[in-house]
Amino acid sequence: xxxFQLSLVSPESLLFSGQVDQVDLPGLEGDxxxxxxxxxxxxxxxxxxxxxxxxxxxxxxxxxxxxxxxSDEQLTILAxxxxxxxxxxxxxxxxxxxxxxxxxxxxxxxxxxxxxxxLLDHYKSIHTTLAPTxxx
Length: 136
Known about the structure:
Blueprint: E1 4-9, E2 14-20, E3 22-27, E4 30-35, E5 41-54, E6 57-71, E7 74-79, E8 82-84, H1 90-106, H2 110-130
Parallel strand pairs: 1-7
Antiparallel strand pairs: 1-2, 3-4, 3-5, 5-6, 6-7, 6-8
């Protein structure tokens, strides 16, 4: 089976670089696989599992969003955050989700938030209009 180059990069490190037969990705619009000869593509990734296969060996990585680009027999994955599946801390993710949900409950909802943003824009426009200009 023909192979292609895969590079999986997170902000912290290069997690994988090598020749693979196939990569399965969690696309925003649905999961998809990439094989050698795939049409050029740029896709937004949702949180999920990336599986890289080379021969009888497969490696799995957890990605928390990002972009994937395939062209010229090279697949580059720029992950927002990623780690090998065996290193992924599920308890930390659950804790982060709970923290975010609690923060959302404290935020003004719907119309209240829209009014707050409009008021902020109004004050900002007044202050920039009234701010004295200094000529040098």
